[in-house]
């Protein structure tokens, strides 16, 4: 078996693991969503940021999803991460559960076994996740004023399985590139859109901040046609994400869908060399709904990909846990008359919101086709079939 090759100048201390080959794309004609693509390599060119921000404005306001390219990670580096995920999920369940995340207390750090959540009444999911939080030692951590000790921080470092330990240098380098480069550029563009200083949103999103940011390896175990029918083809119910932004590395198995304004669902096409990005709840709160935390879901792939266990690689960006959900003072929002819709809710911290949503995901689905579920402080999250 071929070993994962090291990139020039990158550490070579990871164990030899099989190289990950991305599967072929579907040849099925699907109703694809028409999404904007931002080439982030233009960011530092003269006028580049302003151009990119102008290109992004409508997408973040009306759709909540877009693609980025030119983000400075090669497909080979991305595939190394897919290879690590694949190795981890191939471990026996009894090994994986040793690293189970404390889901009941709203902490996603570690392993989430399949069946942890319900998709339809009495029907549990077929999804496994391994979430790797930031590698920040307690010394480097910027503790927010409302946390007195590192022990109160939502589990940053934890005991990891060998496959993560052996590849830790590379995983941390990959994570840091996203957190310190890619995401910072996106936050600058969003700040420009909101007519705020360019570094405004960066402040609550530093690698050393206490936050639930994580790199996620994910696998959707394929189901038979009969099982798909029983599950109404759903692998994950329509939902919004909890934090600031979600970055989804190219996933050639078609399954992700976005809910459009008119209630229809469109497929998200995975383009080579791209990351799909979506706005999540906290940015929606901070902008009183101007930035759209869009509803999306995962469904059974088309017939030519139905037999594939769909591997995913995602980065979840979340704000420092002590930041409140109150809407930002932005000249744009002020002109539009947008302020927090719910005064009590605006005092909730991002950390409490995210933890409540993680806990809520372990609950049973709302019965009787109800589309809303109370989360915290009188605010609900929306779920759709
Ligand atoms: O697997 C995907 O394409 C999307 C996953 C997702 O929506 C999530 O994990 O929040
Ligand atoms: Fe999601």
Concise overview:
This protein has 385 residues and is α+β, with helices and mostly antiparallel strands. The chain has helices spanning 48-63, 75-89, 93-96, 162-166, 168-193, 225-230, 281-286, 331-335, 350-360; strands spanning 37-39, 65-69, 110-112, 118-120, 123-124, 127-133, 214-220, 234-239, 245-249, 256-259, 265-267, 275-279, 296-299, 310-317, 372-376, 379-382.
Question: What can you see in these coordinates?
Answer:
It contains 9 helices and 16 strands. With 385 residues, it is an alpha+beta fold. It has one domain: B-lactam Antibiotic, Isopenicillin N Synthase, Chain (Jelly Rolls), CATH 2.60.120.330. The radius of gyration is 20 Å and the shape is globular. Mean pLDDT is 88; it is low at 1-12. The protein binds 2-oxoglutaric acid and fe (ii) ion.
**Overall mean pLDDT:** 88
Q: What is the number of independent domains?
A: 1
How do the strands of the widest beta sheet line up side by side?
1-2-12-9-14-7-6-3
* Cα distance spanning the termini: 41 Å
Uncertain segments of ≥5 residues (pLDDT<50)? Answer: 1-12
| Proportion of helical residues | 10-25%
Q: Just give the CATH class.
A: Mainly Beta
Coarse morphology: globular
Bound molecules: 2-oxoglutaric acid, fe (ii) ion
Assess the beta-strand content as a share of residues: 15-25%
Number of strands: 16
Gyration radius from CA atoms, angstroms: 20 Å
CATH topology: Jelly Rolls
Give me the strand/helix succession.
EHEHHEEEEHHEHEEEEEHEEHHEE
Structural class: alpha+beta
| Number of helical stretches of at least 4 residues | 9
CATH architecture identity: Sandwich
Supply the CATH superfamily name: B-lactam Antibiotic, Isopenicillin N Synthase, Chain
The major sheet is characterized as: 8 strands, mixed
């Amino acid at each position: 078996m071929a070993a994962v090759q090291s990139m020039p100048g990158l550490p070579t201390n990871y164990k030899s693991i099989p190289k990950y080959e991305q599967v072929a794309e579907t040849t099925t004609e699907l109703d694809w969503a028409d999404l904007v693509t931002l080439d982030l390599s233009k960011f530092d060119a003269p006028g580049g940021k302003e151009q990119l921000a102008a290109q992004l404005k409508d997408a973040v306001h009306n759709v909540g999803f877009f693609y980025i390219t030119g983000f400075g990670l090669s497909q080979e580096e991305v595939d190394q991460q897919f290879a690590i995920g694949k190795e981890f999920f191939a471990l026996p369940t009894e090994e994986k559960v040793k690293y189970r995340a404390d889901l009941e207390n709203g902490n996603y750090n570690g392993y989430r076994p399949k069946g942890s959540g319900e998709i339809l009444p009495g029907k549990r999911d077929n999804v496994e996740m391994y979430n790797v939080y930031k590698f920040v030692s307690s010394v480097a951590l910027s503790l927010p004023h409302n946390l007195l000790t590192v022990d109160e921080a939502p589990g940053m470092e934890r005991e990891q399985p060998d496959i993560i330990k052996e590849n830790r240098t590379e995983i941390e380098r990959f994570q840091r590139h996203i957190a310190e480069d890619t995401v910072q550029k996106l936050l600058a563009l969003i700040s420009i859109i909101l007519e705020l200083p360019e570094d405004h949103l960066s402040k609550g999103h530093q690698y050393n901040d206490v936050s639930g940011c994580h790199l996620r390896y994910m696998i959707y175990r394929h189901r038979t046609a009969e099982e798909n029918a029983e599950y109404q083809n759903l692998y994950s119910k329509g939902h919004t994400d909890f934090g600031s932004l979600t970055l989804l590395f190219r996933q050639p198995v078609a399954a992700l869908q976005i809910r459009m304004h008119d209630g229809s669902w469109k497929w998200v096409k995975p383009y080579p060399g791209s990351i799909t990005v979506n706005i999540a709840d906290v940015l929606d709160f901070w902008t009183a709904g101007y930035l759209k935390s869009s509803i999306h879901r995962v469904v059974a792939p088309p017939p030519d990909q139905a037999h594939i266990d769909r591997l995913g690689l995602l980065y979840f960006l979340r704000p420092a846990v002590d930041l409140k959900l109150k809407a930002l003072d932005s000249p744009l929002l002020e002109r539009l008359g947008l302020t927090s819709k719910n005064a009590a809710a605006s005092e909730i911290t991002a950390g409490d919101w995210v933890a409540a949503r993680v806990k809520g995901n372990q609950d049973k689905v709302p019965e009787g086709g109800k589309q809303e579920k109370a989360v915290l402080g009188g605010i609900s999250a929306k779920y759709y079939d």
